[in-house]
User: Fold this.
Amino acid sequence: MTALDTPLLVLDGLTVQRGEIPLCEEVSLNLSAGSICHLIGANGTGKTTLLMQLAGLLPVMTGEVVYQGAVSLPIQPLYVSHQLGIHPNLTVAQNLTFLLNLYGITPSVTDIDDALAWVGLQGFETVSSSHLSAGQTRRITLARLYLLTPDITPLWLLDEPFTALDVDMVVRMEDRLSDFANAGGSILMTSHQAVGVANQVLDLSNYMV
Ligand SMILES: Nc1ncnc2c1ncn2[C@@H]1O[C@H](COP(=O)(O)OP(=O)(O)OP(=O)(O)O)[C@@H](O)[C@H]1O
Assistant:
């Protein structure tokens, strides 16, 4: 097996767990370069919990997470929470800059302009984030995807990235997810709507306790 064949992320016998309460058991998954995996399951199954465990925000008590061939957590993926993490006292450009700084990127003015234009927020750079609609606020959090490549963050964990987006923006997002996967990235994402670009599905309903 070559390095390229090594799965980016392997979950083996993982328990999805909130505190002492197991939600799903024996969850297994192989994500390789180019995988876009749609994480599905009814409300409350544990989808967000699993993403938070992989992001290192909740502990993994049982099972193994192998990332890039090594047993290691936290794995420092890109994690886009459905709780947006946008500071209302910062401008749109300041919030995006902060989100990129988290991944070691110091964006130029052109980077910020291009990323905001990609999500349709051109002209909003100096607007207070508290003045935006729900969909516009979500677009700030997604604008960072425009600048993040597999070299920087090979794994994207996206929790309901399409919520509150209009149809055009969903299409643009799907194109970006495809481009990222074609460039060698992997994505594990939740969505209560169909994800046309997904090439894998993990249904947590099959693992409920
Ligand atoms: N902050 C919390 N504190 C304690 N328990 C929680 C918390 N958030 C969720 N839970 C519990 O964990 C379980 C899994 O929640 P989680 O958010 O992972 O589900 P989900 O599959 O993402 O649901 P949804 O589709 O509604 O977003 C829920 O049944 C809920 O009772």
Remarks:
- The chain has a mean pLDDT of 93.
- Residues 18, 23, 41, 43-49 surround adenosine-5'-triphosphate (CB under 6 Å).
- The domain at 33-57+74-207 is CATH 3.40.50.300 (Rossmann fold).
